[in-house]
Specification:
It contains 5 helices and 4 strands; from the N terminus they run αααβαβββα. With about 170 residues, it is of the alpha/beta class. It has a 4-stranded parallel β-sheet, with helices on both faces. The longest helix has 21 residues. It is globular, with a radius of gyration of 15 Å. The mean pLDDT is about 90.
């Protein structure tokens, strides 16, 4: 949804598939290997404007960890896995301290971290009824399309405020 909507608003979106996914694995590789992949992808882009790094789940963690090294202006964390399912004491809160503005887009029913679980100073956009995949149940009072529209709207508002409106273009 972001790749479809943001270019029309003046933002270039580049997507890449994590190497572990390309290899057909179902579980992410070690965090350091994810960071290497993200940094290589960013270097290959040769972007000319402000860079915002982002990702979903393990990719969100990598984006937050790599943002400063990449010279990013911000990190977009979609479905940030704040902790492993059922293990809230194994928090990954420190990874949110990216040194740049961070927007977490989190499903209200994400078993890896509900919006209220995040530290007080974390900017969180909540996707009602959504799970870790940012999917809403068929019986939810909102449709999947409406959930995606919320994600796009929250992200666009954040980008305009943090990148364009801050004078840091």
């Amino acid at each position: 949804a972001l790749a479809a909507a943001l270019p029309g608003e003046g933002f270039t979106v580049a997507r890449f598939e994590q190497p572990w996914r390309v290899a057909g694995r179902k579980v992410a590789t070690a965090p350091a290997t994810l960071d290497v992949g993200l940094k290589a992808a960013a270097a290959a882009l040769g972007h000319g404007g402000p860079l915002i790094v982002g990702g979903r789940s393990a990719g969100a963690r990598s984006a937050c960890r790599s943002a400063v090294d990449l010279g990013a202006r911000g990190a977009l964390a979609l479905a940030f896995p704040l902790h492993p399912p059922g293990k809230p004491k194994k928090s990954r809160r420190d990874e949110l301290l990216a040194g740049v503005p961070v927007l977490v887009v989190q499903g209200a029913n994400d078993p890896m971290g509900r919006p209220d679980d995040f530290p007080e100073n974390t900017e969180v956009a909540v996707v009602p009824y959504a799970d870790h995949g940012l999917k809403v149940p068929a019986r939810a009072p909102i449709t999947q399309t409406e959930a995606l529209d919320l994600i796009v709207e929250a992200t666009l508002e954040w980008l305009v405020r943090e990148v364009v409106g801050s004078g840091r273009e």
